Amino acid sequence: MKIIIEQDKCVASGQCVLAADDVFDQRDEDGVVILLNDDPSPERLADVRQAALVCPALAITVEE
Predict the structure, then answer these.
(1) C-alpha pair distances (Å), 18 with each of 33, 36, 50, 52, 61
(2) Mean pLDDT across the stretch 21-25?
(3) What is the pLDDT of residues 36-49, one digit of tens each?
(4) Considering the chain, what is the average pLDDT of its residues?
């Protein structure tokens, strides 16, 4: 799995963090998404996919 973040698209809604807080976080200064873990455990893969789906800006892409 490859997780791609397009920070320039991010609207800082925080939905990704709610879905997978051990994989995504937000920068303190502007709330833009950052990737904490580019190799999530197999149990968290569904949460990572959900984070990409709920992102209102479509700033997260998951490639299988």
Answers:
(1) 12, 14, 10, 11, 17
(2) 97
(3) 999 999 999 999 99
(4) 97
d(CA 40, CA 28): 22
So what's the pLDDT on residue 35?
Answer: 97
Q: Are 2 and 45 in contact (CB under 8 A)?
A: no
pTM: 0.93
26 touches 32 (CB < 8 A): yes
Distance CA 59, CA 43 (A): 22
Dump the DSSP string for 4-33.
Answer: EE-TTT-----HHHHH-TTTEEE-TTT--E
